[in-house]
Amino acid sequence: MDILIDDKDRLYVADTKNQRVVRFINGSKTGTIIGGGFRKEEQLIYPTHLFMGEKNDLYVVDQKSFLIKKISPNGRMMTVAGTGYENSTMNSFGECHGLYVDRSNNLYVSDAIHDRILKFSPNMTTGTLVIGNHSTPFGIAVDEENDILYVTDWSNHRIQKFKLNDGKKRDGITVAGTGQQGSDKWSLDSPVTVKLDCTHNIYVVDQGNHRIQRFSVNSRMGETIAGGKRIFAEQEKKIVVCLVFELA
After folding, report:
1. Can you tell me the distance from the alpha carbon of 84 to that of 62, in angstroms, rounded to the nearest whole number?
2. Fewer Cβ in 10 A, N or C end of the chain?
3. How confident is the model at residue 195 (pLDDT cuts 50, 70, 90)?
4. Which domains does the chain possess?
């Protein structure tokens, strides 16, 4: 359900239905299971999202277990957030659709069921509330240079940004989408993933429109860089698209 490429051009795949994470060396069609599968001591129930940390630690959302797990370069897997139960307490979360780990190893988790973003500091099992009452947050990204958190507002068809670490409670600023479902250059339909490149352009997986949109800095008009044609039947309820690119 998710893929990423590390700095050595190795491909990682969250093979959700087979309950495993598989790594492929560049040029090879045969993968190595690095988490889940038949490894009983390190089971995954429903791995959906991946994130590579600064030290090549691979973070995995095990969505139906309500856990975030970390696979270290030596292959060891450990739980870094979650209790294994869906809950609204600060050490638990509901259905997670996005995560981000900054250079200080702070872990940000989107909790779509409880409409919030949690932050887990290194080695802490209890999180702090970063954003609350945000309708159905899915994908998240952090501009660490400017301390800005970007959040996909799935049910309101928009991307919002929030200033971090200023000690103030702020409403989000909409940077993409109109707040209404649509398919034109200014609109989005159920966005699920947001990414930033090194020049702060915004990339959005626009799920309902089956496309990837790029929004240049300070522009609310998107450009379709992939997809866009409705080749699926209208009754199809869920299309999952993975966005992969290298940040310089």
Report:
1. 9
2. C
3. very high
4. 1-98 (2.120.10.30), 136-247 (2.40.10.500)
Angstrom distance (rounded) from CA 90 to CA 217: 34
In this structure, what token pair is assigned to residue 13? 């795949």
**pTM tops 0.85, yes or no:** yes
Residue type at position 152: T
* DSSP secondary structure of 130-179: EEES-SSEEEEEEETTTTEEEEEEGGGTEEEEEE-SSS-----EEEE--S
82 vs 60, 127, 215, CA distance in Å? 12, 9, 33
Q: How confident is the model at residue 194 (pLDDT cuts 50, 70, 90)?
A: very high
Q: What is the pLDDT of residues 48-69, one digit of tens each?
A: 999 999 889 999 999 999 999 9
Task: Residue 53: name the closest of 19, 115, 6 by CA.
Answer: 6
Q: If DSSP codes are grouped into helix, strand and coil, which group holds residue 16?
A: helix
Residue 27 CB contacts under 8 Å (≥ 6 apart), including other chains: none
Tokens at 130, concatenated: 């970063």
What would the two tokens of residue 37 be?
């599968």
